[in-house]
């Protein structure tokens, strides 16, 4: 089986290396040798293991390609190319979560075959788990650490008590964060991956901008202080939860009890916790990025094609399921608030009165001792309430003279 690699960066070169170095093992397991024969790259690759060209038409005009592996990234050009290939009945493997986040349904009905295990959580076989291993389950929830950069930053902040900016700089020096890390720390990367998982679990047709998405840049050492005091850990989670036949989809930093399985996943690792009605909770853990980890998933899809076992009529996104996307304001969960306030009598009662007016009740309260600070820092957790109620409270708090910095809120999952 001849393979063309549309992209020859860290992942593309790792795919070529794996197919060449492990060719005997791969052939023994799928019954056919899989040969990478040509690759597409913007610039010359003098040490490339295979032929590299810069014009995609040189690859498209060949008649000896059995499978195309799209590893270019981006959205529009990648979509146009994959659409063309699938429309012509070709087989394609992609690791492009951004493209699938926007165009997965448009690719569903084409005559070709598309595999996409590497699009979520790198080498963790989470797509296969949802489509096959958990196929008999009604999926109650999905909670995932889907971005290694954010997880590394939050883990390091928790361990050392450093602020966000200092930790980000260290992550960049170590190569765990890009020079421009906005896609990772804003939650966008995790949102793209969550949409793919939610489509498979619930048949939800949504775009990234339609779901709640918040990043980690406003978290500071005070939040880590509170988390430790109350036995929480802070993680950037992608969350999908079914409520009757509505599904809430959200990506945001989250306080979770430190003794839960997913709370123990640190550094650049990824993990996805899935709760099914039959199996209960299962956790899928591993490297979520990097050339070799992603290549592992890409080659696994190629081997499926080689075994001729990939005959699904659909990718799994279009399903006759009755689920609809829950509106953001109807999300119902617990909340954490960090407030910097004027240190004087009556402030606490004013805050609790505002909470009551917004239909929110206090679950716990902590005041951090002042050390050379003019203002007090107050921490609250609430009982479960609606997103629209917490938004109303935040707006009201910002209008108060005794509030000395913008209120900070995080959601809690227990």
TrEMBL record:
Residues 336-411 form the ACT domain. InterPro entries: ACT-like_dom_sf, ACT_dom, Asp/hSer_DH_NAD-bd, HDH, HDH_cat, HDH_CS, NAD(P)-bd_dom_sf. The keyword Ribosomal protein does not apply. Keywords: Amino-acid biosynthesis, Methionine biosynthesis, NADP, Oxidoreductase, Threonine biosynthesis. Pfam families: ACT, Homoserine_dh, NAD_binding_3. PROSITE patterns: ACT, HOMOSER_DHGENASE. Pathway: Amino-acid biosynthesis; L-threonine biosynthesis; L-threonine from L-aspartate: step 3/5; Amino-acid biosynthesis; L-methionine biosynthesis via de novo pathway; L-homoserine from L-aspartate: step 3/3. Its EC number is 1.1.1.3. This is Homoserine dehydrogenase. The keyword Cytoplasm does not apply. Belongs to the homoserine dehydrogenase family. It catalyses: L-homoserine + NADP(+) = L-aspartate 4-semialdehyde + NADPH + H(+).
